[in-house]
């Protein structure tokens, strides 16, 4: 389980959970959404993501890395090439750069990735 906060300019901002098809494309499930101080458990798929929203994801390490990358940068440049029609190629997951697994840069520019309990208080 992992949390991921959307920063300004993230690809997922302005898109609904339904449009993103994260589970279909990456295998990761959105189990909750923290939006404007409110927790949405099992969020409505038509809910549109906004800057500073925190998405709570469930999946394997590879699925979580893919989902976080997709939320930030979209399917381009990702092992997820055929959005939204097909799941990721397992061989592509093994070739995924380590930069997709862990945030880099300064703390202010890196997405927030905190354990679930810490994120909700």
Provide key terms for this protein.
about 120 residues, alpha+beta, Alpha-Beta Plaits, 4-stranded antiparallel beta sheet, 5 helices, 4 strands, about 25% helix, globular
Quick gist of this model?
By secondary structure, the protein is α+β, with helices and mostly antiparallel strands. Helices cover 26% and strands 17% of the residues.
Number of strands: 4
Q: Bin the strand percentage.
A: 15-25%
Mean pLDDT score = 77
Give the total of domains: 1
Order of helices and strands: EHHEEEHHH
User: What is the count of DSSP helices, taking H or I runs of 4+ residues?
Assistant: 5
Widest sheet: strand ordering: 1-4-2-3
Radius of gyration: 13 Å
What does this structure look like?
This protein has 121 residues and is α+β, with helices and mostly antiparallel strands. The protein has a single domain (2-120), classed as Alpha-Beta Plaits. 26% of the residues lie in helices and 17% in strands. The protein contains 5 helices and 4 strands. It is globular, with a radius of gyration of 13 Å. The two termini are 15 Å apart.
């Amino acid at each position: 389980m992992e949390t991921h906060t959307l920063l300004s300019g993230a690809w997922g901002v302005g898109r609904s959970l339904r449009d993103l098809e994260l589970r279909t494309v990456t295998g990761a499930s959105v189990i909750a959404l923290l939006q404007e101080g409110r927790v949405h458990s099992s969020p409505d798929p038509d809910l549109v993501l906004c800057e500073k929203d925190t998405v709570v994801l469930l999946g394997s390490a590879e699925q979580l890395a893919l989902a976080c990358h997709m939320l930030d940068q979209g399917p381009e440049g990702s092992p997820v090439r055929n959005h939204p029609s097909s799941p990721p190629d397992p061989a592509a997951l093994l070739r995924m750069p380590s930069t997709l697994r862990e945030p880099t840069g300064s703390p202010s520019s890196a997405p927030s990735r905190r354990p679930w309990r810490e994120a909700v208080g």
